[in-house]
Amino acid sequence: MDLTFTEHEDAFRADARAWLEENVPRPPLPSGDTREGFALHKEWERALFDARWAVVSWPEAYGGREASLMEWLIFEEEYYRAGAPQRVTQNGIFLLAPTLFEFGTEEQRERILPKMASAEETWCQGWSEPNAGSDLAGIKSRAVRDEANGGWRLSGQKTWTTRGAFCDRLFGLFRSDPDADRHHGLTYFLVDLRAEGVTVRAVERLDGDEGFAEVFLEDVFVPDRDVLGTVHEGWRVAMATTGSERGLTLRSPGRFMAAAARLADLYRRRADDGALDSDPTVRDAVVRAWIDADAYRWQTFWIVTRLMDGGQTGPEASLVKIFWSELDVRLHETALRLLGSRAELVDGDDPAAWMKGWQFALSGPIYAGTNEIQRNVVAERVLGLPRR
Amino acid sequence: MDLTFTEHEDAFRADARAWLEENVPRPPLPSGDTREGFALHKEWERALFDARWAVVSWPEAYGGREASLMEWLIFEEEYYRAGAPQRVTQNGIFLLAPTLFEFGTEEQRERILPKMASAEETWCQGWSEPNAGSDLAGIKSRAVRDEANGGWRLSGQKTWTTRGAFCDRLFGLFRSDPDADRHHGLTYFLVDLRAEGVTVRAVERLDGDEGFAEVFLEDVFVPDRDVLGTVHEGWRVAMATTGSERGLTLRSPGRFMAAAARLADLYRRRADDGALDSDPTVRDAVVRAWIDADAYRWQTFWIVTRLMDGGQTGPEASLVKIFWSELDVRLHETALRLLGSRAELVDGDDPAAWMKGWQFALSGPIYAGTNEIQRNVVAERVLGLPRR
Amino acid sequence: MRFAFTDEQLAMRDAVRAFLEKECPAKVVRDAWTNDTGRSGLWSRLGELGVLGVLAPEARGGFGGDYLDLVLLLEETGRAALPEPVVEHAAVAVPRLDDARAEAAAAGDVTITVAPPSGLVLYADTADLVLHGDRFVEPGTLQLRRHESVDGSRRLFAIAAPPTSIHLASLDRAALGVAAQLIGLADRMLTMTVEYAKERRQFGVPIGSFQAVKHHLADVALALEFSRPLVYRAAWSIARGDDDRSVHVAMAKARASEAALRAGRVALQVHGAIGYTTEYDLHLWMKRAWALAASWGDAAWHDARVGRAILDTDRLPEEQ
Amino acid sequence: MRFAFTDEQLAMRDAVRAFLEKECPAKVVRDAWTNDTGRSGLWSRLGELGVLGVLAPEARGGFGGDYLDLVLLLEETGRAALPEPVVEHAAVAVPRLDDARAEAAAAGDVTITVAPPSGLVLYADTADLVLHGDRFVEPGTLQLRRHESVDGSRRLFAIAAPPTSIHLASLDRAALGVAAQLIGLADRMLTMTVEYAKERRQFGVPIGSFQAVKHHLADVALALEFSRPLVYRAAWSIARGDDDRSVHVAMAKARASEAALRAGRVALQVHGAIGYTTEYDLHLWMKRAWALAASWGDAAWHDARVGRAILDTDRLPEEQ
Fold first, then answer.
1. Is the ipTM of this complex over 0.90?
2. Residue A245: active-site member
């Protein structure tokens, strides 16, 4: 065990910190879940890409640095410490890319990954449907074979597609074998949202941003080269992605360490104002949020060390997803308590940011598999309790 | 609405307070869940009975005062305020008696109730069996008809029989129709524990008292006059009892008001010692316990007013059981926090009492239907969610 | 001891509920987010109905009632998420008036709001008077600066000089009124969510048949069942001038705030993504609950009030 | 950055686990409640095994190791609920010795216990020495007064003069050792309960198939998963003399205490009445967890330590 960083890791951190301090936009960009904000975020992503900070863990050929998992964590710590913008390329980079690396063809990787990393092509996910939420296997959107044109015709509706109103392309599952049911007969498609037959409707989210979209597909042609993995085997292919969605790739500890630091700072300022004299318990809530962020960091280093030794993670990813999502809720709840009667204001600086963060945090226990489902997974696949 | 007590209620309270101050044993009796303690408690119960405080809400003919439900609550407040002993007659008075009043014959009531109230005959309940805990309908103990002697022959095993090692008689369900299953074909019997074929084995509880017993029955004869209600209809008969077991009769607010007062007193003494300077959060836990006890009191007055107006309570009893049992756990947990490293001592005064109370409190969420079952009842029968 | 409302009080509650179900559906609450006033347009009809003048003297066209006559009506305004300063006006300002202004206030011809210690005044732009400390002043005199609330219907205005002190009686009346509204909000969110859980199917069954969902909702029912009586009891204590009324109000506001916040959390979690959209109505109730739970003292602030009363003195619960 | 134990450390952990599974089954723990010493009779064998001398100098027959070599072994003593003052002896006292006493202590020829600020000394009657403040004294000099613990194997003795101050290093080593034991206790209670939930049937199915039971147990797994790394990190910080080691120990003890208390609550609730009897083994583990969670500072006490370090100064998490 050696809990100090190597010279190489320290140097990597120093490089990242120096570049970020130099380049992080001030004042912060508007929300990337709005049309204007999204455009500005694409410019930022482009700058990250040009400096080879967009996808540090990828092969150099695709714009990465072949950084280790540990270095990726270090980059994330620095990224959030610097207060850098949310990653609007996140769903492509963290959800689709791992699947492409595992199941994609060389042609697909070369065609898709660089543009994804540079935000020239932005990706959204198309898992959920009106009747397929927690129960993803309930997918009804169809894919019909179009032999003549060497491809497929997609029809159906996808919902809760994050930033779907602004993205270029969608990845998701469609039912290619109508006779197979549940987890079978699904195929993983990469869909051009500009294609004929696609209608995208923006849906306003709790915080007022149009962060969601409904995507309607009517007989949309998708060529064979945009099938990811084996036809009818989409479920197996997709599970790799949902795994990483739950796991640390979606919410690295750096994000919560930075939030805990902001929370402690807010606490000090409110305490100096004497605003907390009447609430003796909120201080402990701040301390707990800090400790939890620290616990998440060390649990991550523990897992990542195992991975770098060639070990595996499996259903433990569900423990991680439960922990970060509920930590995020508690942390923001504590911030709102610190703000007291000003917490509801969405035009001040502090309050607005924390209230927006709170509303975002509330989605954590819901998406990527509700925490109720995750607890079932922990009980059944980590602890071995009967499925029933 | 009038939240003051009537002159009559105040007078009733004054009488009760005066008698209790005069008569409550000092020092407190040893635990009634031990053989010696049980004997002393029977003397106390006899004194209560002679002064007509044992069963205030019962008809005078059976030793009561025909007190109203509200007066009964007032008596309970005074009883616990005075630090009077636990009621070893509780299971008879609060669980069996309501069933006798509803389903018993005149002969049974006259034969059983006065002796029950005076503790001349003490009763324990025989619901649970090794394979019938939360799932009470899993009862396997059999009752076989003995026409010749005009009665039944009981065989089987009952478990977790509170104070079963010291009591005289047991009430419980036995399977009288072997062909019927689950809730059907059960009969409610009153069993003499001195009868031939009965073996009682004391079982030590968490707190070291022999508060539990296993009761083994081998071909035990029970005469027809000791069948309560209709043969094979025992489930319907028993449900009345489990209802009151869950409801307020088992744990009236007075008990928790007295505990909250002791907790506040403990807090003040520990705070004066400066023992709490390092724990800023325990004070709020004390306040919450106090408020919860108060909330329980007023929710009870709310329900009791409805009952006195001729209204009903049904599945709401499950809400009450969840509330008092979890309040009791939080309240004692807070006391142990206040005691810090001395909490584990079971020979000091304060610590010993609180640690014993804590261990007793831990049984609350388990017995009389686990709180998991109670939450199902609330969801299905109060909120109307589907049973599945 | 008799803890129940009179038939008259229940009848008035039913009348107000029926009125609000008809006149203040979700659409009215939603429109208040974007209209000029943030309000419902029902003010004068609430006056006619008698809601605004419950605490006004009969001689001034009021009902001459007390807080027990008002508390159930405030709970209904919470259930409907009525976007109006009804607590400030009917529960706090009106009982301090006995002149002609009482008459206008009872009739709903004027709107009176209150400047809380936070200095954030609700609906100051459309109010005719603001109760500031112990004075009624014109809004124009307060140098209003508009603020946006997470609840788009709450038009808040910072004032240059917040009141340095506020009557304890006003604070208690406001905190209790908001507590009653929080109970109504929580009850409505629970109902909405139970209905959704019965309808919404996943894995081939209604999600309401999953034990985890059942227990989430049972916990909300539990919080409601044991906070509501505290609110009614505090209303009685204010109505009768009980010496401990401030402690009773604090208990009520603390637990009602938590019940409403829990109801919102569970409602959103059980609804899932649909509840996370503004197209669905839940957020209108949830955001009101967030705002009100933190208004006039949050749970921790009121717990601390209770603590000073019960721990820094020597007393028994409900000392007789 | 490499957060993993060495193969040697894991091998030693496995050896100690195997030894305790064989030599310290539940029966040994249960007997310690009623025997003369409250102990296991395994002390000298723990010495032979090398557990007691991990922190003793090699020159004195010790392993010359550091806290990283010890922490996993302490976790195992928790898993087995080993009734011995192993934390006091091996983690606190031994590292303060380098003379002949270190040799005897490493071999398990003597037992050394520690007087905590509470003044309640564990196994003072069977100990040869007591670390009192910064001095090693004979138990006989302390005027021992026996106390009964809820955990019958914990023989506690009040002393006339508790140490007025205790070395921060000793406090940290003791708190961390107890934290490691709490992790072991929690892990064992979780395992016991999962096994029971698979076997026990009600309503025709294993109770472990009910979602409520699953979620209770998942919450225990969650608490363990995120407290264990804090314990190992604090062990590293002590081993390396990190400036923040006291904060790291506080974080570890706070969360490990809560994890063990939660494991006990859930274990009892899922077991039901059977777990509520002393004939069943669960209570031996649960009561040890109650005692240790409150020893050497409970969760709130350590949270407060962390608070002083992070809130009364200006710093970032893990400032680089």
1. yes
2. yes
